[in-house]
Design goal:
By secondary structure, this protein is an alpha/beta fold. 32% of the residues lie in helices and 19% in strands. The chain has a seven-stranded parallel β-sheet, with helices on both faces. Strands 7-6-8-17 form a four-stranded mixed β-sheet, with no helix packed on it. A two-stranded parallel ribbon has the order 10-13. Helix 1 links the parallel strand 1 and strand 2.
Length: 351
Amino acid sequence: MGAVAPRHILVTGGAGFVGSHVADLLAEQGATVRILDVLLPAAHRSRPDYLGNHEMIEGDVRDGAVLDRALVGVDAVCHQAAMVGLGVGVADMPGYVAHNDLGTAQLLAAMDRQDVGTLVLASSMVIYGEGRYHCAEHGLVRPPARAAADLTAGRFDPRCPVCGAALEPGLVPEDAAPDPRNTYAATKLAQEYLAATWARETGGTAVALRYHNIYGPRMPRNTPYAGVASIFRSALARGQAPQVFEDGAQRRDFVHVRDVAAANLAALRYESSGFTAFNICSGQPHTIADMATALSQACEGPPPVITGRFRLGDVRHIVASPTRATTELNFHATTEFTEGMTEFATAPLRP
């Protein structure tokens, strides 16, 4: 993967699902790892027992004094700290903006003060909104947000905004125009803009990793902010069938957390100044129903139930191209879907 990764890394949110795997892999590769995590009660009931011997500072990424202490001697930052998920409602907006955007701004300002010039940012595919669609007559189009009336009637797939025809979903490249459609997505895009501004003004390197649907050991259990894989897994642990929204045909790219950690290592070795974004995905899209079925079979549990229910703000299909990450980062996911889901079916979740 090219250059040697920096030796002393700060992992914000390093006690969390993705951050802890990043910290572990970096340590395995010989890096000295320091974790900064506020241990939000919504995400952690207690300090996780999987943190091992990593140095840890318990503190808030929005606190400049804490950041100055955490950045002493650091070569680079893997910024994983964030409130995640779609958000439950408009009342969530201040919390998401405070943790994700103000926190990132404070981190970047502290990195400037401490002369730390390399950032790997945990971004998300949600910035693309409804993804990429092609109309046979009008070419590439951007469908509007799906109407509640259409969803209630079971019309789940977006239509061409010009002629109303059916659309063909495609792979989203990194240069696609962003189209955030919920609070979380808006904050992740703002984080990217802040990182790009920091890189331009300081000459630093900022690499944004647009994660797709991550799953694997240490996922949080069922909460309003948990990923769909964790929600299904939690249901199966209770002996209940996974409840699949819409018709289950929503297409996603499920990527294992170990592959995401490997992408962070590759990003730390990336030799380019300025801001660059990469899709971090498996390149093997599956439907939500595929994932629910794979977990049910691996758990020997009840088959999934297709409910027809929906959430406004959800998108129908979002599958991205892995080409740039393959060619520029030399990154490709190695965990095959069935293998990963079989492992995840019995992997420990975070309380």
